[in-house]
Amino acid sequence: MTLHLPGANGTLRAYEPRTEPRTVTPGSAFTSRRVFSAAHVVADPYADVSPDSPAAVDWDATLAFRRHLWSHGLGVAEAMDTAQRGMGLDWAGAAELIRRSAAEAKAAGGRIACGVGTDQLTSGTLAEVRAAYEEQLAVVEESGAQAILMASRALAATARSPDDYLEVYGHLLRQTTEPVILHWLGPMFDPALEGYWGSADLDAATDTFLEVIAAHPDRIDGIKVSLLDAQREIDLRRRLPRGVRCYTGDDFHYPELIAGDDQGFSHALLGIFDPLGPLAAEAVRVLDTGDTDGFRALLDPTVALSRHLFQAPTRFYKTGVVFLAWLAGHQSHFTMVGGLQSARSLPHFARAYELADTLGLFPDPKLAEDRMRTLLHLYGATP
Question: Which residues is 247 bridged to in the sheet?
Answer without folding.
Answer: 224, 267
